[in-house]
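LAB NOTEBOOK - FOLDING QUEUE
OPERATOR: T.R.
BATCH SIZE: 2
PURPOSE: Compare the predicted structure-token outputs for two unrelated chains run back to back under identical settings.
PRIORITY: normal
REVIEWER: second-year student, initials M.K.

ITEM 1
FIELD SEQUENCE / FIELD STRUCTURE:
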Amino acid sequence: TKVLLLSATPVNNSLNDLRNQISIITADKDDAFEASGISSIANLLRLTSQQLNMWEKESDGQRDKTTLLNRLPGNFYRLLELMTISRSRKHITRFYGTRDVGKFPHRLKPDTHTPHIDVKKRLLNFKDTNLRLEELILAVYMPMSYIKPEYRSMYRERFQTRYNNKVIFSHEDREFITAKMHRFNLFKRLDSSVFAFGETIRRLKERIENYIFLLEENLDKDLPEDTGEMTEEGDFLENDAPALDYKYSIKVNHLNKQAFLTDLAFDKIVLDDIYSQVQAILQENRDNKLATLVHTVQQKIEHTPYNSGNRKVLIFTAFSDTARYLYDALTPAMKKNNLVTAMITGSDKPRVSSRRIEPGFDTVLCAFSPRSKIKTPLPADGQVDILIGTDCISEGQNLQDCDCVINYDIQWNPVTLIQRFGRIDRIGSINKDIKMINFFPDMALNEYLSLEKRVKSKMVSANISASGNEDVLSPEMNDIRFRTRQLEKLKDEVIDIDDARDSISLTDLNMNEYLFELAQYLKKAPDIKTIPRGIYSVTRGEEVSGVIFCFKHLDDAAKPDNDSTLYPYYLIFMDKEGTVRYGSTQTRNLLKHFRKLCYGMDQPIQPLVEHFLAETNDARDMQFYSNLLTQAVRAIQNEEDQASEQGVFDFSGYNNPFAGTTLDDFELISFMVVK
């Protein structure tokens, strides 16, 4: 049986995903790749994580992707080459061509809208509203804090989480995190839409009022269990329901009612004020963000089509509440233009404004993008023109009949926006141009993300995991600077995250591109396999003169714990002064440099060859190059010795099989003189 694990995630600044996928494949066998020179997967990933963490902490001026790639253990690259294949848009375009499968569409410059929530700019100022939300105690999610002292130990023991007879999680901790997650969820929903925000406020108010009723009536009852009504699609809580759906029973008479009522009343006062603003905006049609969306869609349809005759628009939101709100608002406006609107979420049955189209998940998607879905056009009255969807359709869907994606909420992470855009940014698209339109909050990005960071820091101030795992938010979301830079770039261009200088992807970490290109060349020029060892060539360099040597170590039994993924082969670039420009641990950089020097050149540069032959007396006087060769071998030996010394600190022990090796232990495969 063969299994292929597919991931659409273009960036991963953490090894969590990789570690988990390898664990599935190896059934947690730590020495599964010992035959390939990897004695311990866990130890290798731990060392690699250390380098990643150090790199993440470096300042902007020092944080360079190339530097990180040179620091990572060679066995980590070997592991990736054993287990992974990575294909990026650039790789497909460069190596596969587009003649048979079609081209990628051209990405137009994105549009960015930052409307104030209120048309009159009086209510629900984003920053001020979040400051009010931070005042909330959220006592309704923390009843354990109000249990009378004489009952506290009983409830603690009843609800605490134990593992191997050890308490790893108290119920107070669980309630604390639940409250902070709800606060963070309010923050996200305000960013999405005033309607979704209002719905969450309404549900929270109802819960508080129910608690107040039970406490004031002095009923001898249990507090109501959490019914999960807050886990509407898109909520941060949704994926964590098992940990947050804390079903417990606490006797009302066991609570300090006065303190509990005081804090519940305080929260209700704050929420009542915010909710009144929400209602005013909705009832008086003052939702400026919605008005901006309607105008943007109408402009695209009536005045600025990006491709002639294409009136399709794909609108993304994280919340099904927002999706329903947009559908109800856009449908009558679009009917005036004889356009069909549809909605797909992960929690509701699809909706569509035309009776000609069945409201099913697949039927709506096929009606929206018939050429890509069913490979045949449909009549205009059988198609969907405006599709509103949540992130349940942001991955794995071909919707490239459409030429415009609108991100109604940004959801913190630039990767999410690019994945959404990927539904229409697909090879073989019928559209020449495609467009991304983003709705950002009405404030500077760095201020917005700093505000999010402050809200989040309140949420994670307690360590909720005894296992030492990372924060519940994804690792790239922890980097405010990273996200600020990428979101700023998205104002001017739709970027490939794996091409961003300060982000890491599998494309950076394996040699798939080089190996593919080499394989293609070997097919075209099979005679290269018959070329004798020791052959050389001469080429022109732009900056540094020197020699690129390729060696083979002859003693396979002396295989070192080195950082070269090419062993028993070594590549090294020595400048004419005898300094190592690229060492044997910098294979990727050297191969890129090598390719840059030689790509597209299939004939010798005759003047350079004649100059080389003249200075070496027709290659009979090679003393200069022989000295460089000796220095290159010594450099390899020194690098291996340093790697062996490092083994003392990473628990693999000191072991240098290269100790005592000489020049005779290396065979010169080829060398290239750079002039």
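ITEM 2
FIELD SEQUENCE / FIELD STRUCTURE:
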Amino acid sequence: MNARGSNRRRGGWRAVAVAAPVVLVATTMVACGSSTAAVGTDASGVVQAAAAAPPGPGSMTMEQTLSDGAQRTTIAFDALGFLTGNLGTDSFFPPGKVADFWGFQYLRDNDPSEMGHNTDFLTKASLNMLTVLTADQRAALIALAKNQVTSINDYGYQRFVLMTAFRRLVNGDLPTGTTGLSESAVKAFSADLYRLDGQISYQRAAVMGPILAGLSDEQKAYLAGMVGKGMTSWPTVDEPTELRALSHDEKVAVMTYAGDMFSWYAGNVTADVYFCPERQGTYFGSFYLKDAPAVGNPGYSIGTNITADMGNALLAALTPAQAQLVTSLVDTQRPALTGIVDVRTQVSTELRKYMAGQASDSSTVSTLMGQYGEYDGTIVYNLATNFAAVSKSLTAAQKATLLGLRHQTLGDFAPTAAFLYATPIDFPTVRNTDFLFGTGTVPTPVTTLPAATSTIAANRARVKTSAHVTIGGRTSLGVAGTKVKLLNNKGRVVATVTTTAKGKWKAVIHPALGLWSYRLRIPATSTTSVGYSDYVKVRGIR
């Protein structure tokens, strides 16, 4: 899972010399843990910054994230990435930043052994969680992954629409008759994207919550030996054999679920709400700038002070007027950030109902996530606009200085193409982005809902024609109260049943003479489209 990319894949990693940019624009990416540093001006008015001390374990809170100092250096680090990178670096985005209401970032940022940003952290958390789960519980996560991969990837591809528009802005490639981005269009598109994130989150909670609520005393005792302890004290365990047959995307999803389940179990709403300073405004390449050396490098620890140090170095390289375009964003985005905290609190509270044996309201989550997306849309609109203004005013000497800072941070790492999350890919085809500048046709939001699925099995493969057979399974929706229909191979409904706890269902039928196939039809919901189980065959004999 934490091998975030492979040099064997197309568009893979390679080290290259950083060429002089056509336009100085790049994406920024940092591991969470941005320290606050004192920022001031010297006698000439040039921004100067004092070195900041790395944060200690337990010090990363929402107060730290929202502090002016943390936000100032984070935004400046984003600017460094955006002003020295390209669309390929912009696209690098850790998979764990999608549907992140489980407290994993809090667990990582506050690890007592200060190993939260080591590349082994997620692996150890995930494998221990998978080890303690039963085979059936692991199977539920695998089924969820197979069901969600399409939506997860769709979210990643839709990010390219905003990133492409931001690149057009900084390159001066504006549609005729426009002068910049349309804030309302950016907010609307972001809202739709975050509603998809909400669907993914809701589906995960519906599966992970009941599993955690039903843990045995033995399972709880195992996890108790890990909760509150640093990563270095966690057991070293092997990967479950079930994961070996999964595709790359499915395995990444399962490992993400498992790590999130551990942090969700170990944490609380406060931990679920927490996000690091770099969580919002993720279209500017900062994750690549900071995480690239860690890809495929087991045991590598990402520095927690890179954001503060390089953000302050960026500000020091700018004129006071240029620096003001960056630092003023702290005040500009503050209302949106506080709004995001409120939304995350409500969403996290709603999703935790599944851990208490209650059902969450999917429509509430969807509405809240739309608001979340609008807030983030406001943030990224302002970041892109101001970064583009800085880019236009940079001198050749300043561009050289910023490229030097990038090389100091990243070395010669540069992507040959793009990324779907952290996996190298060829650049995808992106829809026309004129609508994000307030012109052209606004596309109809298209959200691809995954189909619901169900396991199915018969209690006997061969039964007498005078006997009845019981067929049962469990739907991927994982909730009680879902009405489902059992169909024969002619499409005729032979039984209608309602799911019980954890989405379990059972139907008793009287098979006709001969070979018959049956499958379950699962209705559409707000988070899934209509789906079916696989066929099961029952042979009636005289």
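REVIEWER COMMENT (ITEM 2): The radius of gyration is 25 Å.
FOLLOW-UP: none requested
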